[in-house]
Amino acid sequence: MTLFPRAFRAALVGAAATAMISPAYADPAAETFVAAILEEANAIFSDTDAASRDIAVETLVDKYVDMERVAKFALGQYVRQATPDQMAVYLPLFRRYATNVYQSTLETYSGQKLAVTDSIGRNERDFIVNSKVVSAETGDRYANLVVSWRVYRKPDGAQTIVDAGAEGVWLAIEQQSQFKSVIANNGGGSKGIDALIADLSTKVGG
Amino acid sequence: MTKFSTSVHALCLVAIFFVAGAAYAQEEPAADPSAPEVEAAGSVETDPWEGFNRQVFGFNDLVDDYFFVPAAKTYRATTPKAGRRGIRRFLSNLGSPSVFVNDLLQGEIGRAGKTLSRFAINSTIGAGGFADPAGKMGIDGHSEDFGQTLAVWGVSSGPYLVLPLLGPSSPRDAFGSIAEIGLAPLTYVRTPPANYARLSLAGANLLSARENVLDPLAEIEANSLDYYSSFRSFYTQARAREIRNGVADYDALPTFDEFEDIE
Predict the structure, then answer these.
(1) ipTM computed for the complex
(2) Which pTM does this prediction carry?
(3) pLDDT digits (tens, 9 = 90+) for A39-48
């Protein structure tokens, strides 16, 4: 009998907390930035030719994703152990690898459109902009899927994308988990980074 | 993945291998001090049982390649898409009493109400659960299991644990799965039809769940340098979000702005 009032109170507190989190830190500039990218992306999703889609996605990624920042993030703590020579080899390989991942992930979208729903600022440089799949077709498995974009604002005000996720599962976080695992399982440090570079090179066929 | 938890016989394996896993971990307590930290949105976890987990993951992958994937592909090739969607809905409807109980145990009265309404609507005018008129009315479904309830009660997951045949889990979630067998009424009915129903249900859940993720999992494997850690990260992130009932924990995300000094 006592469960209900207690649970009800918990639900109220939860609802209040949720209401406090979402609208307070919305950032219109980050939302506008992502909305403009999505407009370009939506045009790409309606293209049915795989080859021309891949080229368009690559152009979009080069234009908006801060690939160097993501590449360094993906190394985790090992970024401080990488030599300049290793970084010179690693950065272009990472760009190719991450672009391939974006291409194959976006291949499954066709005809869907993404629209910005809301945003959350973690601090003055770091924002999450959420978008939703709005689809005309009923029964589409991607209908209402939430796709999130991590926006990084540089000190000069320029904005870039540093991560993308679906339903709370983020790509760069997964890449970091993988890369750290590969480095650690191959002796760590400089040796491990060499192993990662070799694996990446094999993966992208370089 | 939560569909797997209804498989009674497979869950007996959970108990066996969980004990085996714990024993393995005790034999080699110093597992690997340099074991990489798993940074998931929501938590920083370690994988001290990585050696054991990788072996089980390798075994599961083999069984998957030779048994579950071909079975799921056959199922896909021989059934219409709408039929498979009906089956998924039917199985999910059968699981909703368990979801309802866990909603209540978590104090989520609103979500419990939704689960109950869905069960009532879909079991009747939804042709026994094969259709989803409740969803069309705007009452969307959600997952719950006893592992999530324990998480809401403050039980921490413990290390990442890969279970034979069942896949990714944790000591907490494995315990939750065992407790759920005890809570399922069918567990206590030992007649031939009940045994048959139990087994068919377990098989149908596995097949339907595997078919539904054929493409995403193939893509993850194709894109990864290290399928094990890739899978671990995707699973850990998705599970954390599932436990929070889909509410994102933005504060727990790692930062991208620590590289200014080395640019």
Answers:
(1) 0.83
(2) 0.80
(3) 999 888 888 8
Instruction: State whether residue A161 is helix, strand or coil.
Output: strand
Determine whether the interchain pair B230/A178 forms a contact, defined as Cβ–Cβ distance below 8 Å: yes
Distances from the Cα of B244 to the Cα of B18, B92, B164, B239, angstroms? 25, 20, 26, 9
What's the whole-number mean pLDDT along residues B214-226? 91
Cα–Cα distance measured from residue B99 to residue B180, given in angstroms and rounded to the nearest whole number = 11
Q: How confident is the model at residue B39 (pLDDT cuts 50, 70, 90)?
A: very low
- The answer to whether residue B261 neighbours chain A at the CB level (below 8 Å) is no
Contact A57, A43 (CB under 8 A): no
Q: CA nearest B210: which of B81, B57, B88?
A: B88
Residue B234 is nearest to which of A100, A120, A174, comparing CB atoms?
A174
DSSP secondary structure code for residue B26 in this structure: H
C-beta separation of A120 from A25 below 8 A = yes
Question: How close does chain B come to A40, measured CA to CA in Å?
Answer: 24
| Percentage helix, strand, coil for chain A under 3-state DSSP, each rounded to 5 | 60, 20, 25
CB neighbour list of residue B17: distance below 8 Å, 6 or more residues apart: B56, B163, B164
**Strands, DSSP E only, in chain A?**
113-121, 126-134, 146-153, 159-166, 169-170
